[in-house]
Design brief:
single chain; 144 residues; mainly alpha; elongated
Length: 144
């Protein structure tokens, strides 16, 4: 348990980095979808999308998963502290699914095959916000 708080700090830093990608990549998809006729813009945004996902999102994703897993492994009694952890982990699992859905759309955009509208991605961009609210309330307030 000596390093638990350091792992927790690293986990929070990792989550912030991962959430940055989860928030911003769908916004890039909005711009991409709305400017598909502008070839110069599309080429630039494809580079930004790729770098954001693979150079920030993927490392932050793995750092979040590994540090979160380490905290649970070091303190498995958390599972007896109430249902809050189960709700938090369920919301985290939904974020993981969302993460991989972004990769799906990234590949579609990279191949000029995405047919979703900017409006769709504006709505889709709200998913991580809702999940983050649930996760933070469960982790900080532990109401259940």
């Amino acid at each position: 348990m000596e390093y638990y708080l350091w792992i927790k700090a690293f986990h929070v830093i990792s989550i912030i980095s991962w959430m940055a990608m989860l928030f911003y990549l769908p916004r890039l998809f909005v711009y991409h979808a709305e400017h598909q006729n502008n070839a110069g813009f599309v080429e630039i945004v494809k580079i930004q999308e790729h770098k954001l996902y693979y150079f920030i999102g993927v490392p932050a994703f793995w750092a979040s998963i590994l540090s979160g897993g380490a905290m649970i492994a070091l303190n498995p009694s958390l599972f007896q502290s109430g249902i809050w952890l189960h709700i938090k982990l369920t919301a985290a699992l939904l974020l993981i699914i969302y993460h991989f859905s972004l990769r799906y759309f990234l590949k579609q955009f990279a191949n000029d095959q995405c047919t979703k509208s900017g409006k769709f991605f504006r709505f889709y961009n709200e998913v991580p916000t809702l999940l983050m609210i649930i996760i933070v309330i469960m982790a900080v307030v532990k109401p259940l």
